[in-house]
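In the design runs reported in the main text, the only information available to the sequence generator was the tokenized backbone. The following block is the verbatim input for one such run; it is reproduced so that readers can re-run the procedure and compare outputs position by position.
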């Protein structure tokens, strides 16, 4: 039996319920994959992460062992986790460690502690690259004029957040440099990983989606709200809400019923107690654009959403847009496609390796909101195009996100790395 230890950045729902805390609304794609692997009798899976507690916890739920590690001083400080990681490694004795995500240092602390283990690192995004695109067309002046004095004191301006991406990128490069193998899913992430470490062993594996999206529910023109757009998130400039608003300003007279629904908290709000003080610089910038373009009532923030609520929001939309300045292979795009929602996405990062322009989605240059407006207009006017994208996008997503296929591919990578840890790319499609 192969013993695999996952290192993740969130407390899994089963572990959260064991602790009596609210399950997370992020990371859902990992939960189904973990469940799939746990059903394989040749694999014993453990999941470890840091949490806001004072003692190391170890328990089992539904065939998966969980280790919850006190995060220590300075939020995941590497040197404060050594003792805990040594205990975990001694107790579980993993054949392989799989680190999901490269932004935080607690996985690196395990690498520091247990030098003889084999490490596989999964690329989700690449913050060392995202840093370049963080401002997404906003200027330094945009960042400064939308910041308040206390945000400079707290270090929470857009410029400070961009700098945090840069610091996380340093940790990320160390992960790639020290990993036995790296798992990715696009030519884009492969090229950047190999630039960081030319000798790294690269393994290809598509991602599975959250359980709630493997459903018989399907988008249709008859059941969606016409002229509505859905965005899965919009908290930072990278996610591109400002470009969508610029496109809406060009379409408002043509489509007076147009509306944009955004998953997540209202970043523009200043009405609740202390909201004005909590509003981010990007939230102020978006608030200013809404006023400038006369879009009051056209942009609706839906609040934090569970997976089932997200599914309904996708199905209710006429169009889903992924307007990011940079992405690897966004799960939101996969979720929309697997429900059959017609999709528009910016041509960036790994997105062109997920979709084919004009066949399974419509692509546009992020910088050109005029082109985005044209793409939206096409889908609003052409039911035939919307229906074609829905059908072809669904077929592609069903293949790309096949849970059984992806779990088997991941298991093969584990076996190959454990048995023959040689350098070179593995499993990448020709």
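Verbatim output:
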């Amino acid at each position: 039996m192969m013993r695999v230890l996952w290192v993740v950045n969130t407390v899994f729902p089963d572990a959260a319920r064991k602790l009596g805390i609210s399950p997370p609304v992020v990371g859902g794609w990992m939960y189904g994959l973990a469940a799939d692997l746990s059903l394989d009798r040749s694999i014993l899976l453990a999941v470890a992460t840091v949490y806001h507690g004072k003692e190391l916890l170890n328990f089992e739920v539904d065939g998966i062992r969980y280790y919850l590690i006190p995060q220590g001083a300075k939020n995941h400080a590497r040197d404060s986790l050594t003792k805990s990681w040594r205990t975990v490694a001694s107790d579980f004795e993993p054949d392989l460690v799989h680190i999901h995500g490269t932004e935080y240092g607690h996985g690196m602390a395990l690498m520091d502690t247990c030098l003889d283990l084999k490490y596989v690192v999964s690329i989700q995004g690449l913050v060392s690259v995202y840093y370049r695109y963080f401002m997404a067309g906003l200027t330094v002046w945009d960042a400064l004029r939308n910041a308040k004095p206390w945000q400079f004191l707290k270090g929470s301006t857009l410029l400070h957040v961009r700098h945090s991406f840069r610091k996380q990128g340093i940790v990320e490069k160390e992960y790639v440099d020290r990993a036995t193998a790296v798992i990715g899913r696009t030519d884009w992430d492969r090229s950047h990983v190999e630039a960081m470490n030319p000798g790294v062993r690269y393994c290809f594996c598509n991602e599975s989606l959250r359980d709630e999206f493997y459903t018989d529910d399907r988008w249709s023109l008859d059941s969606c709200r016409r002229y509505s757009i859905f965005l899965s998130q919009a908290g930072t400039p990278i996610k591109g809400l400002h470009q969508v608003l610029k496109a809406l300003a060009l379409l408002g007279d043509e489509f007076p019923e147009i509306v944009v629904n955004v998953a997540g908290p209202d970043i523009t709000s200043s009405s609740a107690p202390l909201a004005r003080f909590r509003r981010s610089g990007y939230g102020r910038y978006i608030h200013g654009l809404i006023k400038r373009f006369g879009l009051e009532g056209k942009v609706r923030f839906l609040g934090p959403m569970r997976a089932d609520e997200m599914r309904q929001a996708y199905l209710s939309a006429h169009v889903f847009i992924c307007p990011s300045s940079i992405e690897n292979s966004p799960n939101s795009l996969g979720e929309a496609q697997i429900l059959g929602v017609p999709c528009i996405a910016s041509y960036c990062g790994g997105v062109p390796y997920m979709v084919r322009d004009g066949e399974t989605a419509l692509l546009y240059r992020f910088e050109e909101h005029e082109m985005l407006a044209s793409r939206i207009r096409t889908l609003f006017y052409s039911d035939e195009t919307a229906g074609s994208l829905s059908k072809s996008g669904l077929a592609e997503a069903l293949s790309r996100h096949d849970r059984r296929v992806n779990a088997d591919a991941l298991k093969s990578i584990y076996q190959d790395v454990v048995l023959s840890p040689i350098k070179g790319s593995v499993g990448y499609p020709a």
